[in-house]
Recover the amino acids of this structure.
């Protein structure tokens, strides 16, 4: 049994030739389906249909978001439920299976870890092909490099942003944003994007203290237009 | 006058549909040519020819590598010479121009900064399209996520690696490697790749103290096979 983990960037415009070839050789795409209106599944269907590949959707297990203090355990339980759902399909259907990962599988995505768990239960060979990630599209839209010349970029989650700043990070790319708390960072520069690569994309850049109202309005607009909002941003300390 | 900065990943297999469309609409590709055997130019020619676009190559200005203490100034002088060379071509030739960036323009690449300088001298409109970056291909080849669940990844240069570790970073992606000095990091884990995406690709993963000899041999092999070596790696502290 073969699984291919395919990064598809932020839509069909980012599907690389090697991912397209891999997808053409797959028998079906395995994906989760959220109980409410699932636009990400719809986006995966669009890509799969373009290459004539069927999508098999399994219901997304509930994720316990009540206990943020034990984030790793909540994620682990949710992964376990997803793995069980996938395993059921894989045992029932032959063939080469694709997982389509929005963005790139190497950043804040669980697919590789899920497939590692599946590979402990079933005789699976798997590989990974990269896709364009959200920080790269953010940088392209703002026409920036993610760091100053020769300096680092620290990529982290909103949950860990304050810790990174306290530890002296001056150039931070933030993913998995959830809410947007930038209090005390008014003099920092921000390059922000929501729903990148889609029709509801919004971009804002400037000094945090100056642009925050516009940014929050843009976030609301993106959510109203798409029914969901996913954003990413780069924060840089004043020089 | 229009310039398009196009990320092409690690070769034709990564050229996204939107980059392909952009390239088809360009009149020529502008690129530098190194005095010795220039394989990166050859790779750019391969991509440009696939889309029927001419490559205009200008000699790469000498870069002063003698004074690493003043790295930003050395880079600035080299940029200035490149900008002057590009400006000469742009003044002589009409049309929409593409720069093909190996990997992605947002990480340790000078093209955006060069074009910003050109835009101060000439009436230029420009945009940027993302490509697959080396850290993403590294992660895909090793089938890993670049960070532990919910944790950060610190992306930096070999020059700044020691400083990052001293500051407490436990998960560091290193680019612009030059030489490879991992003394004292024997118990860390490494996922390493050289000449990723090419015929001379080499991969090594494991505990630094165990795999370093194999890794250094792989580096020499990659250099012997290709005539050049570019590597990237992820280092993770023992848990």
């Amino acid at each position: 049994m073969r699984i291919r983990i395919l990064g598809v960037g932020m839509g069909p415009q980012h599907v690389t030739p090697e991912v397209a070839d891999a997808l053409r050789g797959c028998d079906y795409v395995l994906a989760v389906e959220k109980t409410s209106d699932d636009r990400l599944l719809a986006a995966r269907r669009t890509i799969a249909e373009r290459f004539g590949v069927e999508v098999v959707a399994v219901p997304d297990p509930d994720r316990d978001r009540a206990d943020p203090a034990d984030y790793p355990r909540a994620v682990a339980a949710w992964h376990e439920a997803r793995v069980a759902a996938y395993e059921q399909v894989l045992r029932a259907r032959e063939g080469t299976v694709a997982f389509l990962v929005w963005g790139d599988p190497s950043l804040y995505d669980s697919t590789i870890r899920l497939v590692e768990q599946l590979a402990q239960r079933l005789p699976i060979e798997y590989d990974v092909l990269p896709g364009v990630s959200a920080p790269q599209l953010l940088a392209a839209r703002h026409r920036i490099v993610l760091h100053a010349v020769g300096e680092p970029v620290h990529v982290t989650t909103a949950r860990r942003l304050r810790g990174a700043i306290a530890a002296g990070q001056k150039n931070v790319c933030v993913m998995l944003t959830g809410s947007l708390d930038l209090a005390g960072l008014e003099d920092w520069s921000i390059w922000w994007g929501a729903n990148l690569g889609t029709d509801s994309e919004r971009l804002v850049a400037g000094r945090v203290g100056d642009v925050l109202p516009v940014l929050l309005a843009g976030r609301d607009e993106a959510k109203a237009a798409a029914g969901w909002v996913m954003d990413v941003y780069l924060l840089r300390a004043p020089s």
